[in-house]
Design brief:
With about 210 residues, this protein is an alpha/beta fold. About 55% of the residues lie in helices and about 15% in strands. Helix 1 (about 15-25) links the parallel strand 1 (about 5-10) and strand 2. Helix 5 (about 110-140) crosses helix 9.
């Protein structure tokens, strides 16, 4: 079920809970790291593998919601599964609105936790893949010349070659050359693929 290429962080100040959760999660093949203090977890350097955190809402140094905010501020998209022994509806709503993957109230079924971890790890895996792909597209765009970027930004907004030529004060043939070079550098096999890649970068047309 699990994968040694995934890591689950457990942050709970109760040693017996950490041990029980760690044993459960390791039993299905995931790597586990446990912390009793939120600050220790936040200082932990992230590995380049899919992960999630099983986080107690009430900790001695920071609340779980504080940890969630700090991860968001650091642009760390690590999925969070909140655990609480207190049925606090408002806290759960706040956590979920802020992007928590799951909110479980103790006592919970082991299967519910394992399913939540499975979903959270898959979510992080997809997010990491998307970030990697976006970074690759950005690197491709950086190889374009200033003029190629200008042409591309016009083309992807639906402008015809002759319209782009008129806008930029260059010949239509020159536009076609820049367009072809840009598509080659962006590894785009079609105009639709080029448009898709540029759209993902969120670039504005001039």
């Amino acid at each position: 079920m699990g994968s040694s290429n995934s890591i689950v962080f457990i942050v709970d100040d109760d040693a017996s809970v950490r041990e029980a959760l760690g044993s459960l999660i390791r039993s299905v093949g995931w790597c586990v790291e446990t912390f009793s203090f939120a600050q220790d977890f936040l200082r932990r350097e992230r590995l380049n593998v899919a992960g999630c955190v099983v986080l107690d809402v009430r900790l001695p140094d920071l609340s779980g919601l504080d940890v969630q905010r700090k991860l968001a501020e650091a642009r760390d998209g690590l999925p969070i599964i909140f655990l609480t022994g207190h049925a606090d509806v408002l806290m759960a709503v706040s956590a979920m609105k802020a992007g928590a993957a799951e909110f479980l109230t103790k006592p919970f079924r082991e299967q519910d936790l394992l399913e939540a971890v499975t979903r959270a790890l898959e979510l992080d895996r997809r997010s990491r893949l998307q970030r990697t792909e976006l970074s690759a597209v950005g690197a491709q765009f950086e190889t374009l010349t200033a003029r190629e970027r200008e042409v591309v930004k016009h083309i992807v907004k639906g402008r015809l070659n002759k319209q782009v030529a008129a806008d930029l004060g260059i010949s239509e043939i020159t536009v076609k050359v820049h367009r072809r070079h840009a598509m080659e550098k962006m590894a785009a096999g079609s105009l639709a693929e080029l448009v898709s890649k540029i759209d993902r970068l969120g670039l504005e047309a001039p």
